[in-house]
Structures are given as structure tokens and as C-alpha cells.
């Protein structure tokens, strides 16, 4: 029983996030910061989000209206897109000090946390946990499967981003990442106003 809960949850979450903004965000962040630091921030964000989904479920969404979560996420993506475009191909990026471990981890955590709070995968995790809430081990399997699926998709995004550097100049990748963040910000802003 528990194995089927694990595999069904893993498959649902993995397929839902493939090519989604989380994977693309991981890819873009890995071009700006060391991948291990990015992964620590991403992994921590997903642990917190999945714990919230499994333990609190729908109560979380009653306490934090989705409008405000979406608005903050949109503004965050717009800011990060703007700063990425400003830093793209800049001389100061190579001459300046490398980012600290804490700033890279914090940036990754905040970006992923805000992007995924109330997203479809968190809702799927909450509904899977509700379906298997009769046993603690069933809820535990949902948490582990969902977290591992999200970590796997993020690692794929990180390493795909690292491979892009071999074929495309970093300057152009940074510009594309900046535009991508701006697009996500605009789309989230549109979604925000539709919720209002």
C-alpha cells in the first residue's frame, strides 16, 4: 500500500513540475550562483512547503489569501528579472566578489518558496496527504515522495543550465533568464488581478 502511495505521488509531482517555472528557476539560479548552494536553498524551501502541505493542508490557504501570495511572487520575479538583466554581460560581475553562500541559499529559498506557495504541486501534495491521512506512514510517504520528486526536477534543471553554458554564451543565457523571470512576474501579476 505504502509503496503505491510513494510511486503515485512521486510520478504525479515529477510530471507536474517538469518544464514548470520551478525547474526553469533552478536552471537560471544555477547560472548565477554555485549549484550546491542553490540546491540547499531549493531543498530547504521544498521541505518547508511539503511539510506545510502535508500537516496543514488547506488551512494554510485559508490563513494566507492566494491573492497576496501571488502578488508578492509576481513582484519578486519582476525584481529578480530586472536585476538579472542589469547584471547580464556586465564587467562588474566578473570583477566583483563572488556571492556569499548565505546570499545564494537565501535567494534560492525565497524564489522557490514564493513561486511554489499555493502552486499546483503543493495542492496535489495536500490532496494526496488528505487521501492517505488515515495512517501516519501514508502521510509520511506522500511527504517523502513529493519532496524527492521536486528535488529531482530541480537537479535536472540545475544541470541542464550548467550544460547550456557549453553551447550558448553566458551573457545570452543571463539575458534569457532575466526575460524569463520578467515573463513569470507578468503572468503572476495577471493571475493576481484575476484573483482580485
In words, what does this structure look like?
The chain is an all-alpha fold and 196 residues long. It is 86% helix and 0% strand. It has one domain (2-195). It has helices spanning 2-17, 21-32, 35-55, 58-63, 66-87, 91-95, 101-116, 120-131, 136-167, 170-195. The longest helix is centred in the C-terminal third of the chain and has 32 residues, at 136-167.
Summarize the helices and strands and which ones pair or pack.
Blueprint: H1 2-17, H2 21-32, H3 35-55, H4 58-63, H5 66-87, H6 91-95, H7 101-116, H8 120-131, H9 136-167, H10 170-195
Helix pairs in contact: 1-8, 1-9, 2-3, 2-7, 2-9, 2-10, 3-7, 3-8, 3-9, 5-10, 8-9
In oligomeric terms, what are we looking at? Answer: single chain
Q: What is the mean pLDDT?
A: 78
Helix content: over 70%
Strand content: under 5%
In DSSP terms (H or I, runs of 4 or more residues), the helix count works out at 10
Q: What would you call the shape?
A: globular
Number of beta-strand segments:
0
Q: How many discrete domains?
A: 1
How would you spell out the order of helices and strands? HHHHHHHHHH
**How many strands, which pairing sense, and closed or not: the largest β-sheet?**
none
Low-confidence stretches: 91-95
Radius of gyration (CA) equals 17 Å
Q: Which class of secondary structure composition applies to the elements?
A: mainly alpha
Amino acid at each position: 500500500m505504502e509503496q503505491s502511495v510513494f510511486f503515485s505521488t512521486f510520478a504525479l509531482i515529477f510530471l507536474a513540475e517538469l518544464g514548470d517555472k520551478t525547474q526553469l528557476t533552478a536552471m537560471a539560479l544555477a547560472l548565477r550562483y554555485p549549484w550546491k548552494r542553490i540546491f540547499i536553498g531549493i531543498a530547504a524551501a521544498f521541505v518547508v512547503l511539503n511539510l506545510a502541505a502535508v500537516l496543514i493542508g488547506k488551512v494554510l490557504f485559508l490563513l494566507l489569501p492566494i491573492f497576496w501570495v501571488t502578488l508578492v511572487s509576481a513582484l519578486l520575479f519582476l525584481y529578480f528579472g530586472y536585476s538579472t538583466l542589469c547584471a547580464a554581460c556586465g564587467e562588474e560581475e566578473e570583477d566583483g566578489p563572488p556571492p556569499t553562500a548565505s546570499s545564494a541559499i537565501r535567494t534560492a529559498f525565497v524564489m522557490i518558496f514564493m513561486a511554489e506557495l499555493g502552486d499546483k504541486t503543493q495542492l496535489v501534495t495536500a490532496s494526496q496527504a488528505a487521501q492517505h491521512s488515515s495512517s501516519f506512514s501514508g502521510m509520511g510517504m506522500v511527504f517523502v515522495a513529493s519532496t524527492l520528486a521536486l528535488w529531482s526536477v530541480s537537479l535536472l534543471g540545475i544541470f541542464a543550465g550548467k550544460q547550456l553554458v557549453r553551447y550558448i554564451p553566458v551573457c545570452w543565457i543571463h539575458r534569457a533568464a532575466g526575460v524569463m523571470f520578467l515573463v513569470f512576474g507578468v503572468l503572476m501579476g495577471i493571475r493576481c488581478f484575476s484573483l482580485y
